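Hypothesis: this fold can be encoded by more than one sequence.
Test: take the structure tokens below, design a sequence, compare later.
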């Protein structure tokens, strides 16, 4: 690498090296693929080009190699750099979570799986990972397992599903094109199907089948992520399932769409109370009561949380 001429240090050279790394990865030659990605990273840095998106992908790709060969510590380092360059990217979150899980650092793994779920609620690997980590942590720490978790980040709505269109050409995977009509629900079919799925979810809630209802709401939001009530309905399910960080996320997404949504403020306050974020819970309830001063449920919960906060 040190013998490479200055002229070979360019974004074009880095792209060529990345392609070579991808090909090696596809053939299971993970150590050699990591070397090509390392060369691509060096080439990109030496060229002086400001390409954080491309660098983020290169670090994520090299992390995938390290994960495959069992070098979990280096995988974590590369994923962290990738996420510093471009926050809330799905693949480095999942790769870092898997590395943490392999090292039995279950709280950190849960955090990354949870964040990945916020980025893309349809990511099955993230949902499965959260379920595994939740079981391990409950077995380890009992009912107080959430008390030992790191602070959960809240992913801005603008970052959700962004990875599909912006971060293509990752290790061993062909480029694809974003399916805007399916993701945004711009077609009339997508809108109608999203509404139908939401109604199916509502019916399951009425039957008390909250876990199945979440699956319906997930599918509905995949078709139309601009429907506020789908988020608040899914938040209710998460509350019933004691999945409080997920409920906070859904209520925040609802409030991004409708800043005066009373249900979103109330349910987020409930979730924040359960994770002992009493200050946040009080703030939500105060805002709710500013909008609806006579709301008895809000008044009662505020009194309860204020006692806990003091």
């Amino acid at each position: 690498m040190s013998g490479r001429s200055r002229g070979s240090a360019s974004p074009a050279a880095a792209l060529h090296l990345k392609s070579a790394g991808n090909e090696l990865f596809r053939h299971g030659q993970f150590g050699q693929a990591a070397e090509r990605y390392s060369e691509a990273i060096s080439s990109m840095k030496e060229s002086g080009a400001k390409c954080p998106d491309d660098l983020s992908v290169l670090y994520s790709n090299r992390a995938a190699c390290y994960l495959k060969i069992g070098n979990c510590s280096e995988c974590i380092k590369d994923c962290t750099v990738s996420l510093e360059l471009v926050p809330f990217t799905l693949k480095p979150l999942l790769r870092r979570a898997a590395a943490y899980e392999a090292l039995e650092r279950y709280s950190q793994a849960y955090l990354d799986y949870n964040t990945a779920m916020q980025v893309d609620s349809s990511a099955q690997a993230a949902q499965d990972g959260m379920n595994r980590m939740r079981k391990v942590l409950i077995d380890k720490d009992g009912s107080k397992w959430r008390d030992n978790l790191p602070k959960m980040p809240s992913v801005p709505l603008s970052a959700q599903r962004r990875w599909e269109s912006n971060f293509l050409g990752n290790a061993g995977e062909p480029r694809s094109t974003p399916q805007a009509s399916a993701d945004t629900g711009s077609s009339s079919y997508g809108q109608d199907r999203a509404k139908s799925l939401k109604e199916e979810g509502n019916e399951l809630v009425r039957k008390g089948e909250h876990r199945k209802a979440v699956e319906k709401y997930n599918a509905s939001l995949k078709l139309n992520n601009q429907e506020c009530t789908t988020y608040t309905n899914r938040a209710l399910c998460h509350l019933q399932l004691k999945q409080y960080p997920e409920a906070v996320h859904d209520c925040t997404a609802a409030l991004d769409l409708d800043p005066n949504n009373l249900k979103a403020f109330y349910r987020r306050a409930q979730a924040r109370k359960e994770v002992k974020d009493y200050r946040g819970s009080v703030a939500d309830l105060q805002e709710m009561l500013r909008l609806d001063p006579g709301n008895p449920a809000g008044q009662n919960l505020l009194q309860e949380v204020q006692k806990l906060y003091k």
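The first helix runs from residue 11 to 26. The two ends are 60 Å apart (CA to CA).
Hypothesis status: open.
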